[in-house]
Design goal:
Keywords (chains A, B): Glycosyltransferase, Ligase, Phosphoprotein, Pyridine nucleotide biosynthesis, Transferase
Largest sheet of chain A: 7 strands, antiparallel
Largest interface: A-B, 103 and 103 residues
CATH class of the largest domain in chain A: Alpha Beta
Oligomer: homodimer
Domain Nicotinate phosphoribosyltransferase N-terminal (chains A, B): 8-131
Number of strands of chain A: 19
Pfam family, one (chains A, B): NAPRTase_N
CATH topology of the largest domain in chain A: nicotinate phosphoribosyltransferase
Catalytic activity (chains A, B): 5-phospho-alpha-D-ribose 1-diphosphate + nicotinate + ATP + H2O = nicotinate beta-D-ribonucleotide + ADP + phosphate + diphosphate
Strand content of chain A: 15-25%
Family (chains A, B): Belongs to the NAPRTase family.
Number of domains of chain A: 2
């Protein structure tokens, strides 16, 4: 597989392009928009993630000889379309919500302004990335709420596709997780990595004591020992005997955590290991984390539920044509009228309306307004659309490890601005109403 | 990102390796096993997928200079571990269930026989791939059952991570889907690709008729016209007027399908378009497909629910050390005793016991038996473990498009062998009991 991302695309994007080229409409100036009709899982707010990844993937969205040959040999599109694709490089404008921004139903998350051909080709890639990454970030921000200030580590790689796992780490980090188990996420996105040992390491040795001695000899007493391979009370006793009372932490990966954690804390304190922390990692989701709020847990490791969006593994975002220029160069709003899937046509701009205390009160969507005309917006409204691509030039601030770090800071600000209702874990209405202006 | 897959790994695999090297146990001969304690979503059987992908990813699991430098600079492991990793290439044996095989609780899906160091490093990669791909295949086989012989197309790329989407196409195809929308899945795995047009193509034009004319002019009357952008009855009438009564198909992507499809079939027949097929694509899962069993639908397109495992987005497989050699070279079975997460230690071999009619009756797991000694197994038992890697050499029959095609045929055979209970869509017990011998 080469580095081109152009084939991470549904075939129909190319057949539509072909028909539009034949019909002379491929160059029609258009506006596409990505948005969600509702929030995943009846949550109170969604979190955008994937923007930085998307921009890098759009940069690599080129049809090289390998792709063009395959399209020709497989009769996917005709020769004029293949010529068009050979020269393809996205040259339009893209505005969007930043990574880490909160969103609500009908928020115009991404606005793509380009020819029909250039914009339609990106549909699948845009949705793949934003749907998965935002699903993970939207689950992650709730776990951060439930953890109430205690650190969370992402360790779900084994429960997600091996490439998706790297994206999941990034989304979780943006939403407030502190670390990841995934090395590629550490290298690519600059996320702190963590991890010490699994049950297999204990089972490799004659007994738990030998395993702990081997680990402490290499990693030092500051390490985290996994104490639940056999009997937990015996495991804790052995851990402190081997590592001393300055053992960094013990990890629990099974059992009835709310009671177990109290027992283990008492045991550690009785052994004099007052500074030894307790980390728990057993099939946690936001509800299990919330249940542990009053328990003496120091940190959490979250896997399956995080990388699968805690019940909502795709954010349900769609990408629609919302406006096109007619023969006179005038913009025409367009929208389908399908049952249960209606859309609002037209160019959009969005702001978050805040009250005198700086608390968010409304998601305001201006229809027919572009970012260029947005200087008329009152100071109490925070503009939500950032410039991501200008005439094909990608804004590099969103990319790589620095873009990811910036997004994490942005999310912390955005979270702090939300009203108390946003932090409720139960299903319900969005925390802010979306109003059209 | 280079082509090495070595960083698609949890950090703790490397820290365990480091401690084992220091302690002199990294070369201990070991057996690891991947299995599920239960089936995802209380289904009747699971379907293995990802084996062919896994073997290709293991081939690329090498630590190049870029990886070694990063590990050193980030103090992940010490210099001896880095030396060890520089020379790493998996040199052990792997046996496993083939792609497309059915599985049950405790089925030994993958048996890895290698040194501790070589086997522990692969844990994350093995689980990432098998957990996602098998989740999709396990959902897909149920949709195939529900479709009762009508063809199914996979079109979920937009609702899955952009790389996971390619894996999902492969898993669905193995389980019996006929085609995919994803071009990369077509190229990489040889899956037939399909797709014609989205609502945006209709909205690009002044009206539906112009859009249909443009599409038919390029793709011919054998194409599929999407008729629900505005009014469906008017859309169908326009479609036949533009394309003629030999229009290939119309597609419905919204509405109350069981009644709608009957109306549209009647309308098409009244218009004389008896050969025009109806394909439906509106948020289908196995239950919605089953509801349409008596409706005049010709084919289905399935997206979100397929690529997210229809409620079970990860198969819940785990990877455990089950045996190791002691100082005398004798094999010792090992297993943890954690609450709710007990394992059966020891080397495993598995067969599917069939009755005189060739119907599967039992999943039989031999404990302490290796594939080499399996010639003593009765002819009524079908051996389930295939040789995948022998002393580091990958069996190429599982790879690429030909391996995928072979897996699809294998699954058709495996399905036909299952008892009627296996095809029930409701939650319940596994269709076969797992017995240990």
């Amino acid at each position: 597989m080469n580095t081109s991302t152009a084939f991470r695309t549904d075939r129909y994007e190319l057949t539509m392009l072909e028909a539009a080229i034949t019909h002379g409409t491929a160059d029609t100036p258009c506006m596409f928009e990505a948005f969600g009709r509702r929030l995943p899982g009846a949550r109170r707010y969604g979190v955008v993630a994937g923007i930085g990844r998307l921009l890098e993937r759009i940069r690599d969205f080129r049809f090289a000889d390998a792709e063009l040959t395959w399209l020709a040999e497989n009769d996917v599109v005709n020769a004029s379309a293949i010529d068009w694709l050979a020269n393809y490089r996205f040259s339009g404008d893209v505005w969007g919500y930043a990574d880490g921004e909160a969103y609500f139903p009908e928020s115009p998350l991404l606005v793509v302004e380009s020819s029909f051909g250039e914009g339609v080709l990106l549909e699948t890639l845009i949705l793949s990335i934003l749907n998965y990454d935002s699903a993970v970030a939207t689950a992650a921000t709730r776990m951060v709420t439930a953890a109430a200030g205690r650190p969370l580590a992402e360790m779900g790689s084994r429960r997600a596709n091996e490439d998706a796992a790297i994206a999941a780490s990034r989304a979780a980090y943006i939403a407030g997780f502190s670390a990841t188990s995934n090395l590629e996420a550490g290298r690519t996105w600059g996320i702190p990595t963590m991890g010490t040992a699994a049950h297999s390491f204990t089972l490799l040795h004659e007994n738990e004591e030998e395993a702990f001695r081997a680990q402490v000899a290499t990693a030092g007493p500051g390490t985290t020992l996994l104490v639940d391979t056999y009997d937990i009370a015996a495991g804790v006793e052995t851990a402190i005997r081997v590592a001393g009372t300055e053992l960094g932490a013990i990890r629990l990966d099974s059992g009835d955590l709310p009671t177990l954690v109290v027992d283990v804390r008492n045991q550690l304190d009785l052994l004099g290991a007052h500074n030894t922390k307790i980390t728990v990692t057993s099939d946690l989701d936001e509800y299990a984390i919330a249940t542990l709020r009053t328990a003496p847990v120091d940190s959490y490791g979250v896997g399956t539920s995080l990388v699968t969006g805690s019940g909502s593994p795709a954010a349900g975002l769609v990408y629609k044509l919302v406006a096109r220029q007619d023969g006179n160069g005038d913009w025409v709003s367009v929208a389908k009228a399908s049952a249960g899937k209606r859309s609002v046509g037209g160019r959009k701009y969005a702001t978050r309306v805040r009250d005198e205390n700086g608390l968010a009160r409304q998601e305001k969507v201006y229809v027919g307004l572009g970012p260029e005309e947005a200087n008329s917006i009152p100071a109490s409204e925070r503009p939500l659309l950032e410039r991501l691509i200008t005439a094909g030039e990608i804004d590099e601030r969103h990319l790589g490890a620095s873009g990811t770090s910036r997004a994490r800071e942005h999310h912390a600000m955005v979270r702090a601005e939300l009203p108390a209702d946003a932090y409720r874990l139960g299903r319900g209405d969005p925390a802010l109403p979306t109003t059209f202006a």
